[in-house]
């Protein structure tokens, strides 16, 4: 019994100590996920306009590594048009540029209310949104993302990714050396004497290798551009808004130009006369049917008369 009384408190203390250690690890922020991708969920950031939108994924620098960074943000702002203008201005100041901007207004409903006999008020419920794609200098990506916080009212999501392309650059350099070496060998062979047909095949090979060199050069330039300028996709929305516009009362306008009774009566008589003509012409189109009906009628009467006489 004494041993049991001693073991139970010791076991209880050991369990409590283990729970505290586990809680300490969780609070320390340890994560086993990929460090090159970071996102903010709605639960942690929505409605907080002061939250920094940048992260180490956007700002980490290593002279021995090259990264292609991309970011994708969706947020609600006070005024989409004003925020778009501000973002474009801030972007130009840091050397960035816009590659796509689609600003649209979606009309949700339209209603008209009469104010007096001559005027009415048109009420439109609408929302504005903008989908943007911008290029930001890599060194300024963190500052640009943080500058968006001043425009944000509600964050839907924010994703930032950094792709390490260091090995791709090494492979590109090796491939360039191989292509240049092969092209040089073909040039030497072309200068040597030989049959025209053989030389023509060599010339074709030289042209093909030169085309490969050109494509490789463009591919490398594109990769360097993606490293130097990060691509950021923004989707801006705002709360539904109402626009009120004074217009002419359409009912009074219709009444003003409504035709009189006698004019409409005259038109009705004319229309009825034309309808009768059309109906008569339509019946005349059926003249073979009328002849057949008359012959059938005469034949039936003759047959009935003959039956009575017999």
TrEMBL record:
Residues 65-299 form the DUF4349 domain. InterPro entries: DUF4349. PROSITE patterns: PROKAR_LIPOPROTEIN (PS51257). It holds the Pfam family DUF4349. Keywords: Membrane, Transmembrane, Transmembrane helix. The keyword Transmembrane applies. The chain crosses the membrane at residues 279-300. This is DUF4349 domain-containing protein. It comes from Moheibacter sediminis. The lineage of its organism: Bacteria, Pseudomonadati, Bacteroidota, Flavobacteriia, Flavobacteriales.
